[in-house]
Design brief:
CATH superfamily of the largest domain: Glucose-6-phosphate isomerase like protein, domain 1
Radius of gyration: 22 Å
Order of helices and strands: EHHEHEHEHEHEHHHEHEHEHEHH
Largest sheet: 5 strands, mixed
Strand content: 5-15%
Number of strands: 10
């Protein structure tokens, strides 16, 4: 599913051995009730069946789906929908609090024909609840017919609403799993299923993840001691995946002043034209991860007869050009002694995307241990939430 093609410099055997031991320790903790349980969520059979049944019905009943969520409650779903859905237009993920976008939704004449999926692990996310309150008022007294909750199974404002109104369809996010780790839970799987993604195949990818790639990726990132990690896929369908990864690394690893790499997202080959100069000759503080796809579902051939100037691409597939450019860019950086690594994904099937997501979750878990920090919690984010609430209260 996912393989390592190239690494510069070579991977440290000493750090790799340490990482292997760390992974063994982590795998012992992948059990219900433990924080590392997010790495194994295949045993949610009843919830998956409920999602599939609801999604099949909703796709016939509603004209459109709007998903209200932010951060981990949106980025996983966006990754799945973009990478492996054939009907993305049916689902809109509204993951930012934008007044113009919300006003346009409120003015939609087919509002009561739409489904609204409200996702908040805590049940009280400010931005998401603001969206919910607007739609709830607009829909009127029968709002429950058009709104679904995804939230904590026991606590929070959204969960409390369901105790007073049994008509609200609700899906749960396991209490042990934080928002940015929830890509294999209802938070991501429900929107994905509504968009036509085969979610059981995504979950199969958990078992297909290449632990060796995760170990070598974590080891390389740690050993080079760079403080900016660049993720550059050569597939537009993986652009949202880079945004999911950015939150995962930033919020999990940015905990101390001594370590905490800055994630930087790019997209090949277009960002070769905007970033390669910086990566090659700018400050030597970056590690670049290239991600390419071996086989796309569609892959046009160029004409076999072209002028001499372009004979080198005559008859080539678009993938041939993409892979040549990623290889050349990696080689150019290696020649400048700039650390980089190339991963190859076999295809963009649900299983492959599941394996890709799991590999980066494992990488994060290993890196946290190597850095000696807890990847759980986000105190910096929580402080901002408290201050925002205080500011809003003063403005009343």
């Amino acid at each position: 599913m996912l393989s390592l093609l190239h690494s510069h410099p070579s991977i440290s055997s000493e750090v790799l051995a340490r990482a292997r031991q760390i992974l063994k320790e982590i795998k012992k903790q992948i059990v219900p009730g433990n924080e590392y349980f997010y790495l194994e969520t295949n045993n949610q059979t009843a919830e998956i069946a409920k999602i599939e049944k609801f999604a099949a019905s909703a796709r016939k009943k509603y004209s459109h789906v709007y998903v209200f969520g932010i951060g981990g409650s949106a980025l996983g779903a966006k990754s799945l929908l973009q990478a492996c859905a054939s009907e993305q237009d049916f689902v809109s993920i509204v993951d930012n609090l934008d007044p113009v976008e919300l006003a346009n939704i409120l003015h939609n004449k087919k509002l009561k024909q739409a489904l609204f999926v409200v996702i908040s692990k805590s049940g009280g996310t400010l931005e998401t609840l603001a969206q919910f309150f607007l739609i709830q008022k607009k829909l009127g007294k029968d709002w429950q017919k058009n709104i679904v909750f995804v939230t904590d199974p026991k606590k929070g404002f959204l969960r409390e609403l369901t105790t007073h109104n049994s008509q609200i369809t609700t899906f749960s996010i396991s209490s042990e799993i934080g928002g940015r780790f929830s890509v294999f839970t209802s938070a991501s799987l429900l929107p994905a299923a509504l968009g036509g993604v085969k979610i059981r195949q995504v979950l199969e990818g958990i078992k297909l993840a290449n632990e060796e790639v995760a170990l070598k990726l974590a080891t390389s990132l740690f050993a080079t001691k760079k403080n900016v990690f660049v993720l550059m896929p050569y597939a537009k369908q993986l652009k949202n995946f880079t945004l999911w990864w950015s939150q995962l690394f930033a919020e999990s690893l940015g905990k101390t002043k001594k370590v905490g790499p800055t994630p930087f997202v790019a997209l090949g080959p277009c960002d070769q034209h905007s970033l390669l100069q910086l990566l090659s000759d700018g400050p030597d503080d970056k590690f670049t991860i290239f991600l390419r796809v071996k086989k796309f579902a569609q892959d046009p051939f160029l004409p076999k007869k072209l002028s001499a100037e372009f004979s080198h691409i005559a008859g080539k597939k678009i993938t041939d050009i993409l892979n040549a450019e990623s290889q050349a860019t990696a080689q150019a950086l290696s020649e400048c002694n700039r650390p980089n690594l190339t991963l190859e994904l076999s295809n963009l099937s649900p299983q492959s995307i599941g394996a890709l997501l799991q590999t980066f979750l494992l990488t994060t878990a290993i890196l946290g241990k190597l850095y000696g920090i807890s990847i759980f919690g986000q105190p910096g984010v929580e402080r901002g939430k408290v201050l925002a609430k205080e500011i809003l209260k003063k403005g009343n």
